[in-house]
């Protein structure tokens, strides 16, 4: 007799945290029926092995710490199948009650060339109005 779906899920989660949707998808890809995968994910949630709210918050804080802006963080979380309300709450919490422009200032670091700063911050997912205010100054 092989490992149970719960054993397989626990091994997957030990390797890397996953959203509930990712875990279910991986179980289905491994050959489990969708109903079995959904029940396994529900059991993992009950056991505290998986939880989208905690995952979203931790992922958003981690990406924010790497210098990512709100737009890129939101896109990353949405791509992982997390609901919009959960994504929005996680992005807001990742700011730590600081305005987005302060995070952009940190991400820009010592870049003094306006074009390079503009490109860097947009690539990292900061909103254009925040980038404009930081690069050009208020007004």
Structure description:
This protein has helices at 5-15, 20-29, 34-47, 52-65, 70-79, 84-94, 100-108, 114-123, 128-136. The chain is an all-alpha fold and 139 residues long. The chain has two domains: 5-50; 53-136, no CATH class. Helix 8 (114-123) packs antiparallel against helix 9 (128-136).
Write the layout of secondary structure elements.
Elements: H1 5-15, H2 20-29, H3 34-47, H4 52-65, H5 70-79, H6 84-94, H7 100-108, H8 114-123, H9 128-136
Could you estimate the helical fraction of the residues in percent? Answer: over 70%
Please indicate the count of domains: 2
Provide the residue-averaged pLDDT: 93
Largest sheet: none
Structural class: mainly alpha
The count of helical stretches stands at: 9
List the secondary-structure elements in sequence, H or E. HHHHHHHHH
Residue fraction in strands: under 5%
- The total of beta strands comes to 0
Form type: elongated
Which key features would you list for this structure?
mainly alpha, 2 domains
Brief summary:
The chain has 139 residues and is an all-alpha fold. It has helices at residues 5-15, 20-29, 34-47, 52-65, 70-79, 84-94, 100-108, 114-123, 128-136. The protein is built from nine helices and no strands.
């Amino acid at each position: 007799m092989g490992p149970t779906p719960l054993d397989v899920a626990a091994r997957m989660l030990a390797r890397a945290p996953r959203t509930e949707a990712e875990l279910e998808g991986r179980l289905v890809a491994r050959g489990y029926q969708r109903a079995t995968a959904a029940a396994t994910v529900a059991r993992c949630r009950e056991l505290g092995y998986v939880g989208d709210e905690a995952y979203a918050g931790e992922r958003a804080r981690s990406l924010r710490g790497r210098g990512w802006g709100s737009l890129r963080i939101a896109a990353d979380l949405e791509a992982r199948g997390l609901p919009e309300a959960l994504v929005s709450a996680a992005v807001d919490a990742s700011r730590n009650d600081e305005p987005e422009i302060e995070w952009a200032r940190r991400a820009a670091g010592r870049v003094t060339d306006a074009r390079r700063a503009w490109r860097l911050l947009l690539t990292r997912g900061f909103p254009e109005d925040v980038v404009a205010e930081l690069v050009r100054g208020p007004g």
